[in-house]
Amino acid sequence: MTSTPGDDNEVLTIVPEAEHISAIRLRDEARVGSHTHRSPRKLPRIYTGLFLLGFCWTFLQLALGIHSVEFSSGFETVSVAKRIAATGEFADPFMTPTGPTAHVAPVYPFVMGIAYRYFNLLGAGLLMTTLNAALLGLEMCLVAVLSLRTFGSIRPGVFGAVLLGAGTRLVPQHDALFSAVLLLAAGMALLWNNSARAGIWAGLSVLTNPVSALAVGVLALFRGWRFALLAGIVALAICAPWVVRNWAVLGYPYFVRDNFGLELALSNFDDADAQLIVNPGLWKLHPSRNPTEAKTMATLGEPVYYRKQLHAAVVWIQTHPRQFLELCAQRVFYYWLPPLREGWPAGIRCILFLLAAIGTWLSLANRQAAALALTTLVYSLPYAFVQVDLRYSIPTMWALALLAGYALHELLYKFLPEFKWGTQLR
Fold first, then answer.
1. What is the pTM of this model?
2. pLDDT bracket for residue 413 (50, 70, 90)
3. Predicted local confidence at residue 390, as pLDDT
4. Are 172 and 128 in contact (CB under 8 A)?
5. How far is the C-alpha of 20 from the C-alpha of 13, rounded, in Å?
6. HSE-up of 224 (CA within 13 Å, CB side)?
7. Which of 155, 188, 266, 294 has the CB geometry, 3.0–4.6 Å to 287, for a possible disulfide?
């Protein structure tokens, strides 16, 4: 991997700097000869096939009844989107009106709000479902592109893309897939493009999901401090108008979202559970489920209410350090190895994680693969402190899927040497 030192506008040129890239090619040529490699002209067909596979799989989930599609006002993003469509205001994330908000990140609710503005409820739901189907197909396609640039072969990406699609459940009422595709696009731009373009994609990713800031920071530093600084300035410029809006409307310059205090309080109290789906805090204390809490928020204002929640959480953590650490350990475990009671994707996620761990070990000499592994690790850190859910890991599943695909590729080659690996998809 080469670039001109100090030149942030230089696009990275990927060369076989990692033994993995040349090794895959050379051993295939030694086995059956280089004449079996597929023409680069075949790549668009592979990308198209992966896109269609992801797109059709999401609608097959609808047909089989194994999806989680629901556009009720009980979901904060849906509530804000409907408010945007009705009045143009970014407000009222809960069923009880609470006023202006920064509870959710702005990009996806505005996209959904446009759908609700110009279509009826059924039409908007179908449009958002179709958008998410296309996003999954695009994500699977981009994993194959990333594989070609990371390992010099598309095969690990194809394996990883199939695992990624198999472990992804359709949840268009949340921004998880939207965040995943933007973070993947930002990651590719940070690895290969100039600082301006990378910063734009990074800013859009962070504005959709502020936790992505940790991931894009790791990938930006992979290109050097100067590049990271310039890309960071551009990314902050993208986010700045929303920060100013929060300052003007809510009285404080919240960075994209302001709900951390609430999430910390709901995740750390006497009866708290590490998993969101069984945590009493969600079902009894969250303003979306408890009208009394929502009315209190409406009276105090969202910023004051969330600051009080943050203070209560910090006090509890200070007075219950052992229970807090136990909850953190459980949350870390469930983030990477979700329990099967979270549905059929949980088992696939466990397999994907174990394969990704093997793939990370096998590709330690590949700096780009190592950066992707570190990205997924750093991204997961905030979820050690708050309740975890299966969808929280979706934004970085593409990186795990690529590493898992590489492990699967290597294991199949090792134990099935008679397989025609010479049919290189390149």
1. 0.89
2. confident
3. 92
4. yes
5. 16
6. 16
7. 294
